[in-house]
Write a structure and sequence with these properties.
three-stranded antiparallel β-sheet; single chain; SAV_915-like_dom; 15% helix; 7 strands; SseB protein N-terminal domain-containing protein; four-stranded mixed β-sheet; alpha+beta
Length: 104
């Protein structure tokens, strides 16, 4: 049996959402496009939810959505500068203006 020595413990595997995600979209001239948002620090992020109920709780029941797998959403978002993916964000109404997740 071989033993590997590491200077540090390896990082735990990142949690990857299982199954298709529910992605908010908006209508545009070319059809629907994924909505991109900004993080509290101003970076662009793609946003997805693990259920339609979570999406409605955060963005309202009238928000249109599509189902996409994580790799497909990343492939759509990265070319337009959204390198991050935020899963199941929650709207926080008591945060000062400009400090919550907002539409890009």
């Amino acid at each position: 049996m071989s033993h590997h020595l590491y200077a540090e413990d390896p990082e735990p595997a990142d949690r990857v959402p299982a199954g298709p995600l529910f992605v908010p979209v908006r209508s545009g001239p070319a059809g629907c496009t994924a909505r991109l948002f900004r993080t509290p620090l101003g970076g662009r992020t793609a946003v997805a939810f693990t259920s339609p109920q979570r999406l409605a709780a955060a963005l309202g029941g009238g928000q249109p959505w599509i189902r996409l797998a994580e790799p497909a959403l990343r492939a759509l978002a990265e070319p337009v500068g959204a390198m991050a993916l935020t899963v199941d964000p929650r709207y926080v109404p008591d945060v000062p203006r400009g400090r919550h997740l907002r539409a890009a």
